Structure formats: C-alpha cells, structure tokens
Amino acid sequence: MPGGTLSTRPAVFTSLDVHDVRFPTSEHLDGSDAMNPEPDYSAAYAVLRTDAGDGHEGHALAFTTGRGNDLQTAAIHALAPFVVGRRVDDVLGDLGAFSKEMVHEPQLRWLGPEKGVVQMAVGAVLNAAWDLRAKRAGQPLWRLLAHLDPEEVVSLVDFRWLTDAMTQREALTLLQRAVPGRAEREDELLRRGYPAYTTTPGWLGYSDEKLERLAKQAVADGFTQIKLKVGADLLDDVRRMEVARAAVGDGVRIAVDANQRWDVGDAITWMRALAPYDPYWIEEPTSPDDVLGHATVRRALHPIKVATGEHVANRVVFKQLLQAGAVDVVQIDAARVAGVNENLAILLLAAHHGVPVCPHAGGVGLCEMVQHLSMADYVSVSGTWTDRVVEHVDHLHEHFVTPVQLENGRYRAPLALGGGGEMLAASIAAHTFPDGPVWAARRAPQAVAAEGILA
Amino acid sequence: MPGGTLSTRPAVFTSLDVHDVRFPTSEHLDGSDAMNPEPDYSAAYAVLRTDAGDGHEGHALAFTTGRGNDLQTAAIHALAPFVVGRRVDDVLGDLGAFSKEMVHEPQLRWLGPEKGVVQMAVGAVLNAAWDLRAKRAGQPLWRLLAHLDPEEVVSLVDFRWLTDAMTQREALTLLQRAVPGRAEREDELLRRGYPAYTTTPGWLGYSDEKLERLAKQAVADGFTQIKLKVGADLLDDVRRMEVARAAVGDGVRIAVDANQRWDVGDAITWMRALAPYDPYWIEEPTSPDDVLGHATVRRALHPIKVATGEHVANRVVFKQLLQAGAVDVVQIDAARVAGVNENLAILLLAAHHGVPVCPHAGGVGLCEMVQHLSMADYVSVSGTWTDRVVEHVDHLHEHFVTPVQLENGRYRAPLALGGGGEMLAASIAAHTFPDGPVWAARRAPQAVAAEGILA
C-alpha cells in the first residue's frame, strides 16, 4: 500500500527445504536389534524459513533407518503447499488448525490414513513449526508448552476418534488440575533434570564384555535403569541378562526390548525364561499394531511390565492400548506420529488413564526432541515423573546445535531456544545422501583410494 | 558356457517400470464420500518385464486418490532391487519367500511397519508377479490360486504375528477340507458368476433424483444389494435412505458407508436414526485402526452389521477385528495390503473365524483385481458364497485390457490370463501425470484454447 514499509507487511513462510541425511551407523552395529540388524540412522530433515528477518528458522526431522529416507524426504516435500506463502502468524498462532489441515487432507490421507511416511512427514513439518514458534517466543519448547493455557492445549489436539476414551472437557479438567503446581514443578525440573535410562550397554551386536563394561559404566554414571535388546536367540538372551544383572546389581532396573520379534505365545515363553533375572519391562514384544496381543502378553507376564509405542502410528492405537489395559508403559516418539500436537493427545490420554509415559529416543535427534515433551508433561499435564524415564542413547548427539545434556542419569532441562532438533549445517552437508562426502567416499572406495595415491 | 545357447540361459527380470497415472474424476463427483469430497482416482502402476521372450509381462497397481500418487510411485520404484536381475523362476516359484523378503526388509520396514506407501508398494510388486505367474501358467489368477496345493498356499502366507489366532496347521486343515468340493464349485462359478453389489447409485455428490434413478436401475440390472455413502449430514442421510428404500423395495439390501467419518458415539447415534430404513451393514463407521471402537459399535447396533477393511493396513489388524468380534463383514482390498499373499492370509483368517469376506472395489482397477481373490476363496478357501458379495462400481473399466463383466448382478468368472490389473497402453499414456495430454490440457487451459484458435 502507498506509504507502507516492508516492515509492516506480515511475514510469510518462504520455503520448506528437506535434506536426506544419513549416518553410516551400520558399520559399528550401534543400534543393532532383533529387527534392525544393520541400521544406518537417518533423518529426513526439514527446515522452514520465513521473510521475517529475525534470523529464526524452524528445524525438525523424521527419523528412519536408512533405505527409504528418500521416500520420507519426498513425503515432507509434498507438504510444502500447506505452508509456503502463508503468513507466519496465522500458522503459528493456530497450530491446531494447521495440524488438522495436513492430517485430514483428503487425497494424501488415502496413503495412510494417519500412518507411514505421510504421517511422519506431517510430524516433521509440525515439529519444525513448533521449533520456530518456540524460538520466536524466546523459549525452549518444553517451557513454551508448559506455559500454554489449558484451553490452547485442548485446541491443539485432534479429538477425532478419541471421544469414547477422553472428551475435550475431560482433557481440559486434567490440564486445569495441573495449573496450580506448574511453577513449583518447573523449578524442580530446572534444579534436578528429568529422569533418564540408557540403552547404550544393550545392543544385540555387542560382546558380553562390552555389555558388562557399559552396564557398570551406566550405574557409575547415575542411571537407575538400563535396557537390553533381546529376541534373536533365547540362550544368548539368558546369558546376556545374567551378565547384565550381575553387572548392575539388584537395585537397578533392567528393561528388555524385543523390537516386535515375537508372536504372542513366543513372547510369553521367552519372557518366562528371562523372568529369574527380574526384567522391569518387555518392550515391543510383538507387532506394534497388536493391541489385543499386548493385552494377552501383559496378563500372562504380570508383574513384568509391557511397554510399546515407538512404532505406533497414531493416537487411535494408543487409545486402544490404554482402553484394553494392554500396556504398563506408553512409549511416545517425537518423530513417528503427527508431531507435537498428536503427542500432546497421547500424553493426555495416558494421564487420563494413569499410565506413565517413557519416551522412545535414540536414533538421531530423538533424544534432543522428545525430552521437551516429557518435561512439558511433568510441568503441566501428568504433573509427575514417578516411574517416568526418557530413553537415552549416546549416539550422534555431536551433530546437533544443542545436544542433550545428561547429568547423574537425568536430562538437564534445556535452556536453548526451540525444540532441540536443529542439526549442525556441517553435519547435514557431510552426511547428505548420496552426494555428501561421507557417502561419496563409501560409494567409490577405489576411486577415493586412487585419489589418495595420486595426491 | 561354451556351446550353450541363449535359450538355455534362465530368464531374468529386466525391469520394474512404474507409471503415475491419474484420472480427473473430481470433475464429476464420481467417488465422492464423506472423507473424499473430490478424489482423482489414480494408480501407481507397476510393470515387470523379463527377457524370457514369451511376450508376458506382470502388471498391477496401487490405488490412490490423487495427490501423493507420486510418493506411491516412488515407493514401488524403491523395490526394484528386490526383483530386477533375479531369475524369473526363482521368484515366481517361491512367492512366499519373495513376499517376506520385501515385507521384512529391515530398513524400509521402519517406514511402516507394514503400512502406508511401502506396504502398498509391496502389494503392487507382488500382484504384478502374480499376474505374470498366471499369464505364464496360461490361467486367470483366480483359477491358478484355486488349484494350488494347500501346502503351497500355507507357504505363501506370512504367519508372523498370526499364530495366536490361527496356526499353520489350522490353515492347512481348512484348505484341505475344501479340496474335495473344488471342481464342483469351479463349475458353479463358471456357470453362474460371483455375487456382486453396486455402489454406483449412492455417491454423496449425487442428487436425490439421480440416486433414485440409479437405485432402480441397479435392481433392474439384477443386483440384490446397493450401497449409499453417508456421514456428511444426518438429515440428508435420512432423506436419501428413504429415497433409496422406496426405490428398491424391501427385498434388496442397502448397505451404508461412512468412510470413517464418526467417533464411536456418533456412529451409534447416527445409525439408530437410519435404522428404520433397515440398513444392511454400516461400513467404516470410524477409524480403520479402531478395533475396539468397531466392537463397541457392533454390540450397540446389532442386528445392523459392521463392515470394514479397505483401509486396514495389514493382517494383524484384521486378526484383531476377528478376535474381538468387531466385524460381521471383512472387506479386503486388492491394493491396500501386501498383495495376493497377505490377502490369502486374511481370507484364511476370516474363514477360520466363519466371517464372510465382501471385498472393497471400485477406484481404478480394484474390481478387475479383487474378483480373483473372492473367486479363489469360493473354490478353495471358505468354499461358500453365502452372504458374500464383491463391490462393483461402474467407473473406469474401459481403461483395462480385460474389464470386469457383470451379468445379472454377478461377476462373470474371467477367462483371460492374469490378475486383471493390466491397463491399456493408450490409457496409461493419456493419463500419465503431469505430462500426459489429459493433464497437460488441464494445466494450461488457455494455452490449449489458443492452440485451438490457431489451428
């Protein structure tokens, strides 16, 4: 308009860039389990940019294990029309509406619905938007979320298909009940950090010696829970469980994780063989889609707890796991469902059913992102961290701008702005697939060797 | 080898080509429902070629509703390494192993697992392989399947995660029980065709007059069941149901289909309002992932039947729908799960639980493909067609090499070789997105108009 200046024009989103970033983790069997013998931890990495001129960008990622990361990257690209060209304040000011627009897009939803690469793509874009909103608000994401009005939290959640388990009013009441204690819990969180457990000792590919050494180290580092991968060979698992129990003593919880390897009957038989070593929970005993199967396993194995969720595609399956009494532990993942919004729905459902949430993390960037959700849950949703722990795996943190900080077995509450998922530009460039230097070198080892000789 | 000839070298797969084919169906509201207001029926279309020199190719498709068909196409491309360069006889001779290799690929499975575009891509490649196998055997697919030994059928099925509901032995017994009646049922099928029902009258976008006219036409054409889309507006649905019931009379079944529109409570309320018009089944009352929700709806609405399945991603969810008594009708889809193999698993599960299978079809090519599964089920799995009907929608059949043939409300058993999903080359070329002439014209209407003036 005449006389107007650039600064009065509302800022718009100018781009959604996506990078295919992969780490060659299969070379060291870090991350090896019964279903993922050789994962290359990867990120379909999203960056939202605006013309606000404030220096802020929104960063987040969808995690994959290598092949297929290109499909995940393409799925995020497909969501660009939802955001590029739109006013930043409109989108960030109503992330509930933004979420629903993407989740319910009538043609794209056919590819799920609400599952697979499209669902994870929605999660990445939403999480990038939340990262940007937190940065613009001058807050770490956990604190931004923890300070939202209960009414806004409810507006962020998609209650479609949830109301037989939890109504909007019930969710609002739950959130309002937590308001009075928020300030005190925030102080406590900042002082003490959030409880963690570690999976670092327990990968399937590790020798007994390495398991023992790392398990002892975990206890020395202040962890009160470790986790072992199981499910490939029963005799191996019994031996490894014995090694681990001897290493950590009786006072430390040992969770075990079968990564979906078993049928229902196998899960029960196998876990009964491990029971003498007092496993704390069995994680992913069977298909992540099998609500009734988990319920059967849980009834049979009591008091061993049953945990699942890292591969659960959406809130509807979590709802049923809770309705059926199928799990003792809900394991959200920052990058599997439709972002912060759907994870808020799951935190509310779990709190409403009185079931603890112990997030899945590890991979690449998952610890950095998911810690914010548990911290917000503690301050303003469930209001407790009793029997709650966030997974910690000591891999790939060096690639992030604000890596997680563990202290005495607890996550220190991050003070840096945003949602935690921002990767270093140099790491993105080095690991871009297939043409970044890390992969170019692996693709043509002879050529690289020849270059070395010639140089 | 010296002295060998080309003809003694075993044939290998030379290519997996994939085409992004879209039909602008949104322009006429064919296919409109409560969740898909404006679908463009599309196919991520796969072609397997070999160097056998026998003229046979394997054709199949994954169905989508428009946007995202490029992602589905890319997902099929990603499976090329599983097939290109391999010996044709090795792959086609053990399609059970081939299926498991793709479904359980440890890195790609992270993107599901067993759901979304990767799952549908596995389905397309497997279905193309089955199409080729049937053509090489000189058989229509239904007849090839119906003549397999029970032992081979069991070897095709992935029993992972199924054994708490059905063991391999139980499946084998069921199949063996059907062997003595196979020949008689095959004759009956060839004589009479397989029962169908029609959705053609009932799209949401149609006027009452069009609904009435098409409903009467359906009865005149010999159908004993029609289907109406519901779920957008209750008063509209009551009126449309009244129109439809008056048009078809009392002797014809009217199924209704909400396409996932409702929460559990809504489904019950809404269907009670339609109950006076005697709806036969309510299809997709709520989320396709909500096993427990369907069970609740079914209990509340008895004797109205509950049907679902076209969006159910895999056999594990079907297993639970049956275990929980959540459905009266199982609706398989030829292109949603991991192909013929997983659909055999679902047919076996349904037969084991005594629940009829009434496939979802329509879209593009879904009738052509899925009829083979119901016919094989009749001859050699469940052994009955009582209360079984295959959906028929009268759209887009003209694009197929061997379109379905309906006669007096029944599918005639196809005699042409293969699985039915082969599209005409001219249709593929015309509708390729975005550069085929059908889409180029829509992208640049002014340019096309200008060309017309200049010509």
Automatic annotation (TrEMBL), chains A, B:
<dbReference type="InterPro" id="IPR036849">
    <property type="entry name" value="Enolase-like_C_sf"/>
</dbReference>
<dbReference type="InterPro" id="IPR029065">
    <property type="entry name" value="Enolase_C-like"/>
</dbReference>
<dbReference type="InterPro" id="IPR046945">
    <property type="entry name" value="RHMD-like"/>
</dbReference>
<dbReference type="Pfam" id="PF02746">
    <property type="entry name" value="MR_MLE_N"/>
</dbReference>
<dbReference type="InterPro" id="IPR034610">
    <property type="entry name" value="L-fuconate_dehydratase"/>
</dbReference>
<protein>
    <recommendedName>
        <fullName>L-fuconate dehydratase</fullName>
        <ecNumber>4.2.1.68</ecNumber>
    </recommendedName>
</protein>
<keyword id="KW-0456">Lyase</keyword>
<keyword id="KW-0479">Metal-binding</keyword>
<dbReference type="InterPro" id="IPR018110">
    <property type="entry name" value="Mandel_Rmase/mucon_lact_enz_CS"/>
</dbReference>
<dbReference type="InterPro" id="IPR013342">
    <property type="entry name" value="Mandelate_racemase_C"/>
</dbReference>
<feature type="domain" description="Mandelate racemase/muconate lactonizing enzyme C-terminal">
    <location>
        <begin position="208"/>
        <end position="304"/>
    </location>
</feature>
<keyword id="KW-0460">Magnesium</keyword>
<dbReference type="InterPro" id="IPR029017">
    <property type="entry name" value="Enolase-like_N"/>
</dbReference>
<dbReference type="GO" id="GO:0050023">
    <property type="term" value="F:L-fuconate dehydratase activity"/>
</dbReference>
<dbReference type="Pfam" id="PF13378">
    <property type="entry name" value="MR_MLE_C"/>
</dbReference>
<dbReference type="GO" id="GO:0000287">
    <property type="term" value="F:magnesium ion binding"/>
</dbReference>
<dbReference type="InterPro" id="IPR013341">
    <property type="entry name" value="Mandelate_racemase_N_dom"/>
</dbReference>
<dbReference type="GO" id="GO:0009063">
    <property type="term" value="P:amino acid catabolic process"/>
</dbReference>
<dbReference type="GO" id="GO:0016052">
    <property type="term" value="P:carbohydrate catabolic process"/>
</dbReference>
